[in-house]
Amino acid sequence: MDVAATAAQTNALWEAGADIVRIAADSRRDAEAVAAIRDRTGAALAVDLQENYRLAEVLAPFVDKIRYNPGHLYHHQRSKSWQEKVRFLAGVAEEFNCAIRVGINCGSIDPAMKDLFDSDDSIGPMLASALEHCELLDSVGFTRYCVSLKDSDPFKVIDANRRFAKARPDVPLHLGVTEAGLPPDGIHKTRIALEQLISQGIGDTIRVSLTVPNNLKVEEVIAGRQILTDIAEGRIGSVVDTGRRMLNIISCPSCSRVENAAFVELAQKVKQVTAYAMEYPFTIAVMGCRVNGPGETDDADLGLWCGPQDVHLKRGPQSIGRFSYDSILSRLKQELDLLIANSDPS
């Protein structure tokens, strides 16, 4: 809702080479702010509806693309089916000449779809969800859509997008590694996925997702442009240990969902205070908001998701409690030490 700051950041990203700038909106006041931002930038704007799909009709006149997550459609008006909601979105997009992105994320899959697959299969429900949403959009005659299938593991991103491209080669794909984390690790993870996919002709737009403060968000665009240049010029083949045999810290980007700017500094401190455990194959997730935080920390050995005043600490899907930003690191270290003590030395 800080129109001046968001417009300035939008223009900074645009000037750095971003062809599309995405803004998240979760309330009518957010939507009103987007309308004001539209007057201050020439960038193509995509809007992330987060959990409130009904905001689409308020936002559509001011944006070029609407992004919705199938896993978030059930939050509002639960008596309505997801099919009704998608038809509504397609109708709004058609009326206001907007494109749609069906944005599917590993940590927020439609619960009904997730229940149809084995608990250790994270790609199956993502792929099935994408395909059924494509089928519905096709059935109502809406064709201006693309799909994204994102995971924090670049190898799962490669697998999911390869499988989708084989099933629906006609549908454009938006590529990215979600919660890639702090640079330079986040850039390396993203590079692995993009190199493999783009070199095979898969992908139409990209996103580099880094945990950096607002004044450094242009680093995402610079990194993305460099990766594309390297692929075009044949400089590919990076080999990076992404955490399969060592400590893996994943963290989400500092987007407009974040309710406390201290999240970015916390992610940086988590990396510092856990460096002593680098040789252990654990995953620590640091999430910046209530939208993705609760679900997208479930698969981590230790998860932190940040609220306005407190940080929620989890051990896998189990909640340990809420802690202040000042006390969370010492408790995290205690939990990490317990994991190390109970781990198999082999």
Account of the protein in words:
The protein has helices at 3-15, 28-38, 56-59, 82-95, 111-114, 123-139, 154-167, 185-198, 218-232, 262-273, 293-296, 328-341; strands at residues 20-24, 44-48, 65-68, 99-105, 145-150, 173-176, 205-207, 248-251, 283-287, 302-306, 310-315, 318-324. It has 346 residues and is an alpha/beta fold. The chain has two domains: 3-232, TIM Barrel (Alpha-Beta Barrel); 248-341, Sulfite Reductase Hemoprotein, domain 1 (2-Layer Sandwich), CATH 3.30.413. The strands form two sheets. The protein has a seven-stranded parallel sheet with strand order 1-2-3-4-5-6-7. It has a five-stranded mixed sheet with strand order 8-9-10-11-12.
Given as residue ranges, the uncertain stretches (5+ residues, pLDDT < 50) are none
Assess the beta-strand content as a share of residues: 15-25%
Question: What class would the helix/strand composition place it in?
Answer: alpha/beta
Instruction: Give the CATH level 1 class of the largest domain.
Output: Alpha Beta
> What's the alpha carbon Rg, rounded to whole Å?
20 Å
Shape, principal axes of CA atoms: globular
What CATH architecture of the largest domain do you see? Alpha-Beta Barrel
Strand order of the largest sheet: 1-2-3-4-5-6-7
Cα(first) to Cα(last) distance is 52 Å
Instruction: State the helicity in percent bands.
Output: 25-40%
- Number of folding domains? 2
Main beta sheet strand tally, sense and closure: 7 strands, parallel
CATH homologous superfamily identity of the largest domain: Dihydropteroate synthase-like
What average pLDDT do the residues reach? 91
Which fold name corresponds to the CATH topology of the largest domain?
A: TIM Barrel
Helix-strand string: HEHEHEHEHHEHEHEHEHEHEEEH
Count of distinct strands? 12
Number of helices: 12
